[in-house]
Amino acid sequence: MSGPSRVIRSAAGGGCWRGVAPAQYKEPDQSHRGMTRHLLLAPTLGDDGLCIDVRYFEVAPGGYSSLERHHHAHAVIVLRGRGWVILDEQASELGAGDCVYVAPDTIHQFRAAPDEGLGFLCIVDSERDPAVAAGDEELARLRANPGIAQLLDSLAG
Amino acid sequence: MSGPSRVIRSAAGGGCWRGVAPAQYKEPDQSHRGMTRHLLLAPTLGDDGLCIDVRYFEVAPGGYSSLERHHHAHAVIVLRGRGWVILDEQASELGAGDCVYVAPDTIHQFRAAPDEGLGFLCIVDSERDPAVAAGDEELARLRANPGIAQLLDSLAG
Known about the structure:
mainly beta
């Protein structure tokens, strides 16, 4: 028996939804900053027949997600704000409406601009493997791109 | 071997993307009006590791999708505009940021306001059953709700 169809109302001009409490992104540690997570749609919420979780992440100005990789893919759509995504050795600016496909086993990180937050939907398989933090060798490889080194340093303080 | 990670850039202020051609929603018939479809992310585009297609639909003012049902579920996020969703005997207004879970076998239709379009992401299983149009009995059941009858009549002209 499926849960009923439902509408989840956007509230307060965007970035939050009625009945959806913002949750912790992960256990607090040095790998991430300024992240909140909203679980919008998921089988665990009764949304049967979906094979995915639809989450919304809000990154505060200057914040960033963990630099990590995993076997599952990400489908990302930016809803608001401005920032960057690191995809292995490449960094790309992001703004509202941009989509990102994060292929399996790609090291990736989402970062907000210093003076503006970044809000994005991130869609993943409901059943998925855990993320693994980028190791020292991988980090050295990414830092060989001066643009990425600058990003990692300029906003990490 | 997976396709590479990639960024799909929003263009022209939203509702279109670089390198993504708007496509026909379905074969033309009387069941729908003013719909265009953009396929943003999908395994058929090389986005391996995803089990879903991420599509964007734009409904022109006064337009509507087919009134139909299927076994697969929909995860919908409104990106812009204003309209309604019919979910069996219930109609709900929609605006930017609202999410909709369409449960399996729910008769549903997305409709734009008469004076404003409606643009939404619709995420579905990449492998899914075909849609079935609402039958006469189902339509009579929905029309028992005066709000739905009014919606179906006022915008169908």
